Amino acid sequence: MTRRAIVLLSGGLDSTTAAAAAQAQGYSLLALTIDYNQRHRRELAAAADVARTLEVARHVVLPVDLRAFGGSALTDEIAVPKGRSDHAMAAEIPVTYVPARNTVFLSLALAWAEAAQAQAIFIGVNALDYSGYPDCRPDFIAAFEAMARLATKAGVGGDWSLTVETPLIALSKAQIVRLGVDLGVDFGRTWSCYDPTPDGLHCGQCDSCLLRRRGFQEAGVPDPTAYA
């Protein structure tokens, strides 16, 4: 029987590496990209490119307009923080946090997983070298997995077992880069920047760009990213 996995694919460095990890484990990939009307919409093109490269069985781009709610620098007219230190990043949950985003994304992935009878959901969350998002933490993932068993017909029926896989959750950004290299990921196809320049470059100064750049530097891997 073919093992299927739903992969939440944003087109970023982390989600692409998580997708490659799922593929390396023998899963047939069903890639889900959420178009939530994010300001860094350039990542949607990256997700499509990555999905083609990985030759996923199916790629769904699902529109869910979180800009209607706002409340984040990624979905509202709020400035994206630039040039922050590690201390500043870790001091509080940043304004780039999108309210309940991973809860929404995982719920949509769960719906597809049940319909497709997939055995796993892969998500590239990271709790170690990241910006303090509460929905990237192990206890949240464990709680969601438990909820999935209670909230689905297949789970309640006892004939379906689903796991939420987080292969990157305890890795530093440098370790993620090294893992991606080992898995053959073409990082030049990925996108991380929260605030792209008008000519389509990574800004180089938002939290995501700073973490990405440092990850390549600390991994000793050439950075293919075009920064402003």
UniProtKB/TrEMBL annotation:
Cofactor annotation comment: Binds 1 zinc ion per subunit.
Classification of source organism: Bacteria, Pseudomonadati, Pseudomonadota, Alphaproteobacteria, Sphingomonadales
The signal sequence is: 1-20
Gene Ontology molecular function:
ATP binding; ligase activity, forming carbon-nitrogen bonds; zinc ion binding
- Its protein name is 7-cyano-7-deazaguanine synthase
Gene assigned in the entry: queC
Sites binding ATP sit at L9, S10, G11, G12, L13, D14, S15, T16, T17, A18, A19
What PANTHER family does the annotation carry? 7-CYANO-7-DEAZAGUANINE SYNTHASE
Q: What catalytic activity is recorded?
A: 7-carboxy-7-carbaguanine + NH4(+) + 2 ATP = 7-cyano-7-carbaguanine + 2 AMP + 2 diphosphate + 2 H(+)
Quote the SUPFAM superfamilies the UniProt record gives. Answer: Adenine nucleotide alpha hydrolases-like
Q: What InterPro entries does the database record attribute to this sequence?
A: QueC (IPR018317), Rossmann-like_a/b/a_fold (IPR014729)
